[in-house]
Amino acid sequence: MRTLLMSFLVLMMTIAPASSFSKELTLFERIKIANEDVHSLKATFTQSSKLALFNDPLVVSGELTLQKPEFLRWEYTKPSVSGFILNDGDGLQWTSTGRNYSVVRTELSTFLRTMASQMLLWVNIDEEALSEDFRVTILSTEPPVIKLESKDKEMAKFIKSIVIELPVSLRGISRIIVTEGNDSIITLTFSNIEINPVLSETTFVKP
Amino acid sequence: MIRIVSNAYSYFAQRRLLLILCICGIVLCSALSLYTMTLEENIGYMLPDTESRLNSDLDIIQSAPLQRKVIITLKAEDDDLSGSVLAKTTALIAEAMNPEFFTDVMYKPESLNPKFFIALRDMLPSLFSKEIEQHVGQMITEEEIATTLRKQKQRLGTMEGLVLSSTIAADPLNLHQNALKNLAALAYMRNIRVLHGVYMTEDGKHSLIMASTPVKVTDSKAAVALEDEFHRLFKMLPTGITPIAISAQRYTAANVLTIKDDIEITSIFACILLFLIAIIFLRTKQLFFLLLLPCLSYCAGAAAVAIGWRPASAMTFGFGPVLVGMTIDFGLHLYYILGSNTESKSELLKKASVPIVISGVTTIAAFALLMLSPVPGLRQLSAFITVGLTTALILTLFVFPHFITGCERPVASRPLSPSSPLRRVVILAVAVWFLVIGCFGISDLHFQDHIRSLGVRPDYLVDGEKMVRKIWGTPENEALLFASGDSVDTVVHNTHESLALLPKEDATSVIGLTPLLPCLDVQKVNQENWMNFWAMHPDVATQVQEQGRTLGFAKHAFSPFYDFLKTQPHDISLQNLRKLGVGSLVDTLLVERVPSRTTVTDGTDISRAVTLISYLPDTITVNAAFSPKVEEEYGVRLISGSRLGNELAKVLTSTFAQFIIYAFFLIIVCIAVIHRSLKQCVSALLPACFGLLMMGGVFGLLDRPLSLFSIAGALLVLGHGVDYGVYATHAIKNNSLGTSKAILVSGLTSLAGFGSLLLADHPALYDMGLSVFSGLLGAMPCALFVLPALFTKDSISS
């Protein structure tokens, strides 16, 4: 009996610390768990640029397709057609004036490459990766809103902050608000989000 | 002199310990001097240190920043490895470059300047030439303004709009593009692009890493260490990515490593041949003393250089075989004459000393003359050989007779065998035939006319350099224009003014700073032109505003642009260019420094505060445009491969060839004074003449230009030839087969030594080997066969 009691006590002591110190999952842990089975994503977006140069916001729309870890297709469809692809390090830029596409560059300009990499970073919501380049602040958990401020002084001259809103399901993305150094604001609103859609083989290869 | 030798022999016969102490003293002094010796490998030692153009040109080139640049090109052999894979590999290699060997490593553009295009726009008024004015005129038509603004709106709607808004507000008409063209004049590599964040070619198959290195071009040890560092880096490359590394230091390393390999190969070959000669002719314990003589002489000569010059030229010691070859002749001659058992040793020594003194004195006199040479390397060579020969002469006449008993075989005592008339005819006919061939060859003789040919240029470096030029679009055969002055504006002004003299087709190929940084005078004219232009086009701002509003732009969207048009232009300075982010490019063209060495030559003072370098095509018209008068007038100096080649040929002919002629005349005088007989003089000089003729003939027939080293080899042919002539004359006069044998053995040792140099890859060693080998092939048979065929004991003494 004594042995049984002692065994019970030892068992209780072993279990007790684990249960008493356990925490609730952080937002980023929840995002990670929610997106564990997300390999690719497709969405339409509306980009509204409130620039000092224009009286009214400049509105364009298009489609975003991404596949983890480093594939991104960003395509404007209205009012004019253009886009770029980040393809596992390679890239492509194109424009179109009608039916035909014309490839502007067979890789991305330095700026677009930086932007495309940043977009992937923002959309993937990986705390560790984001913390390398940004100071991360959680503005709200319901709905989840995260604010990023660049640690790099050069980058900070271009982009003051990025605010990312996620859907309640934590899968995909709802909105990105980019505040520029000159206080211009670009709002990207995503809709028609498809998780793990069937993607054509040429999605990240051709315009 | 003969009596002194004889008396000294008798005196020291009782005091041999004193002689041993004397030898030990020489060894000790030499060792102490050599211990403190420092060596330097620098081609400058072989060029005149007077105010020659070649020397100052080389000084100026040494000061160019590109001398310290390392350019590494990585090439993706497969398409799979091009683009991003190559970019990642490039970054990996660049990060792994050891800062001990590489500084300022660049493989990607400097940090993004958010106001780059605005800064370029701000520079436009000072660059506003008539040509740019014409182009801007086309950009401000009503139709063109509408098209440009439409495109700007479209760009602002995309992701790029994030960074473009302030640039477009400041420059809606893209006027900065005109300044961008001027910026392109800075691009030494026309095919360079920025792909995947690194410097690449358009096809993504080649990437570029540029770095500076603290390794001096003249520091051979550090250059070899740098070469090892290249190998370490390139081992990190994955299969399918191949490197091409270009730097002046790689040529230094290649030269050092080639010489090292050559010395190994030629030494082994020469040792085998000398061993065979020793087995056949010198099977005696006295061989130790025969070999000790050149060793001690070499040490004494080297010690003299070590005392006189710090640092000394390593090349001087490359001429060691010259000394060894000549000193061993003294020993062999002594060995064979002392071996003759016809008279007492004292009498035999008297006989031996006559030709040894004559050959020694003439050769020492000839080489001593080189002390007056304007070439520092030749002055060191003169000290080396003069001291070495003097030591050898003293040891041969006063020390070694006490330790050498002479050749123990009967050959030393035999007389020369008389030549039959038929044998004489055959020998003379063959000699005449060689004479004619030699003359024929000499008619095609020419001097080296390219400075680069002085060293080894391995195929992998030459081909690599060609490939790099092709890949990155760098000009071939470029000439460098150096402008030195007290201020940046002075050098820019002088460069600008002198470049204006070029024909248009040459002027458009110039790579330089002046298009982006004109001199202040030109900037002022351009600024005035700019103000006048906008005064004549006052409606442009209104048109931009109106058409912008039609497209949805705000009323004050382009206020920064309107303000810019009204602002008083400011001058472009170096600081502007550095802020722009092109500082590293500027630093390859503009040197602002306090030099460690002041060189004032030909009126060009490179010690001044600022030197500006421009790259020009090395064409006849460019070289003609920069005459000495123009260079003096504008304070500039054009240095091109073709000019350096001409200067080199001039140095070779005027300095080296002149000294050979002077030395030859001095030898003639010495021989004439000593012999006082025309026949004996002819006999003594004929082998040297024949040797030089053969040497020239061989170089002419092989179409090989005479280099610094082959001309130095000619000095040796002259020295050896005179030695053979003097000994052969002595042999004929004394009817001594032993003396003749001495010529044969010493000639064979020299042929073995210099013949082995024909296996060398380094042009210096090969040229030296070819010149001396071919020269001795003429001089030795002439002494052994032609002289006895021409003269007899009676005829030469009459």
Keywords:
heterodimer, A: 207 residues, alpha+beta, outer membrane lipoprotein receptor (LolB), chain A, eleven-stranded antiparallel beta sheet, globular, B: 798 residues, Multidrug efflux transporter AcrB transmembrane fold, Alpha-Beta Plaits, four-stranded antiparallel beta sheet, 8% strand, elongated
CA-based shape of chain A: globular
Under CATH, the topology of one domain in chain B can be stated as Multidrug efflux transporter AcrB transmembrane fold
CATH homologous superfamily grouping of one domain in chain B: Multidrug efflux transporter AcrB transmembrane domain
Report mean pLDDT of chain A, rounded to a whole number: 78
List the helices and strands and how they pair.
The complex is a heterodimer of chains A (207) and B (798).
Chain A: H1 2-21, H2 27-34, E1 40-50, E2 58-67, E3 71-78, E4 81-87, E5 90-96, E6 101-105, H3 110-124, H4 127-133, E7 134-141, E8 144-150, H5 153-158, E9 159-165, E10 175-180, E11 185-195
Antiparallel strand pairs in A: 1-2, 1-11, 2-3, 3-4, 4-5, 5-6, 7-8, 8-9, 9-10, 10-11
Chain B: H1 2-13, H2 16-35, E1 39-40, H3 53-63, E2 69-76, H4 84-96, E3 103-106, H5 116-127, H6 130-139, H7 142-156, H8 161-170, H9 176-184, E4 193-195, E5 198-200, E6 206-212, H10 220-234, E7 241-246, H11 248-281, H12 287-308, E8 312-313, H13 314-318, H14 320-339, H15 345-369, H16 376-399, H17 421-442, H18 459-472, E9 478-485, H19 488-499, H20 504-507, H21 520-536, H22 540-550, H23 559-566, H24 574-580, H25 583-589, E10 590-592, E11 600-601, E12 604-605, E13 610-617, H26 620-625, H27 628-634, E14 636-639, H28 641-675, H29 678-701, H30 708-734, H31 737-756, H32 763-790, H33 793-797
Parallel strand pairs in B: 1-8
Antiparallel strand pairs in B: 2-6, 2-7, 3-6, 4-5, 9-13, 9-14, 10-13, 11-12
Helix pairs in contact in B: 1-15, 2-12, 5-9, 7-22, 10-11, 11-31, 12-14, 12-16, 14-15, 14-16, 14-30, 14-31, 15-16, 15-28, 15-30, 17-29, 17-32, 28-29, 28-30, 29-30, 29-32, 30-31, 30-32, 31-32
